[in-house]
């Protein structure tokens, strides 16, 4: 797993050729664990952001996370609001500059939820949520949305999108059902497949593409009481017939 993360980091964020196996051999257990750790941006942000032009990174916190704890990945948008492209670029440059002061110089991997377009980037194109797009039964729309969301997310320097949601929407009480492609496993799988083709393509070095992430864990969308992140009681036959096929 560590090797995969290192390959991803250097392929998407660096043009420098590097021997991954040699790098791995030079790393201790704590450094490897750090590279497999992802934390929310909250832990390294300033106490407030008076305006959208201000760099939200708290340098002291960022240096502690990256240099002391060897954290390799961050997610989410500062203060949970959409940021300017220029602010995102300042943010990522600050984190990269910290990385350059470390011994290993492993690029940070940053992930963002661009669920219906690049919704955490100001002035990006917004689209209907996936459940609405699924209502069109139009696979080409899913692919085109993936292409545009990828282009605008990558323009900030972010190479990873936590989307598409391939869990099936069968629990109407679940507050995140709008993130799914609906209740039909076949349609959800096909919409997700086309979104991935549009967003990720076949070349990870393509600067208009980003890596996708199938989520939110299989069966996450069927919480017993409807509340997010609560227990799901799913018989194996239901799991295999309804929830596994889209991920496959």
Keyword list:
248 residues; mainly alpha; TIM Barrel; 40% helix; Cellulose_Degrad_GH3; hydrolase; GH; beta-glucosidase; beta-glucosidase activity
Question: In summary, what is this structure?
Answer:
GO terms for molecular function: beta-glucosidase activity. The chain has 248 residues and is mainly α.
Structure report:
- With 248 residues, this protein is mainly alpha-helical.
- It has one domain (20-247): TIM Barrel (Alpha-Beta Barrel), CATH 3.20.20.300.
- The protein is built from 9 helices and 5 strands, in the order αααβαβαβααβαβα.
- The protein has helices spanning 2-13, 20-26, 29-35, 59-68, 85-99, 130-134, 139-154, 185-200, 236-247; strands spanning 38-40, 73-75, 109-112, 160-161, 211-212.
- The chain has a 5-stranded parallel β-sheet.
- The protein is globular.
- It starts with a helix and ends with a helix.
- This is beta-glucosidase.
- InterPro entries: Cellulose_Degrad_GH3, GH, Glyco_hydro_3_N, Glyco_hydro_3_N_sf.
- Its EC number is 3.2.1.21.
- It catalyses: Hydrolysis of terminal, non-reducing beta-D-glucosyl residues with release of beta-D-glucose.
Question: Helices and strands in order, then pairings?
Answer:
Blueprint: H1 2-13, H2 20-26, H3 29-35, E1 38-40, H4 59-68, E2 73-75, H5 85-99, E3 109-112, H6 130-134, H7 139-154, E4 160-161, H8 185-200, E5 211-212, H9 236-247
Helix pairs in contact: 4-5, 7-8, 8-9
Domain Glycoside hydrolase family 3 N-terminal: 29-248
Enzyme class: hydrolase
Organism: Brachionus calyciflorus
Ends distance = 20 Å
The multimeric state of the shown protein is single chain
CATH topology descriptor: TIM Barrel
Strand order, biggest sheet?
1-2-3-4-5
Q: Which stretches are poorly predicted, pLDDT < 50 over at least 5 residues?
A: none
Total E-strand runs: 5
Question: Could you give a short account of the major beta sheet?
Answer: 5 strands, parallel
State the CATH superfamily name: Glycoside hydrolase, family 3, N-terminal domain
Mean pLDDT: 94
Outline: globular
Instruction: Please write the CATH class name.
Output: Alpha Beta
Helix/sheet category: mainly alpha
Strand content: 5-15%
Rounded to the nearest angstrom, the radius of gyration is 19 Å
H and E string: HHHEHEHEHHEHEH
Helicity level: 40-55%
CATH-scheme architecture: Alpha-Beta Barrel
Number of helices: 9
Total tally of structural domains: 1
GO molecular function, one term: beta-glucosidase activity
Protein name: beta-glucosidase
Keywords: Glycosidase, Hydrolase, Signal
EC number: 3.2.1.21
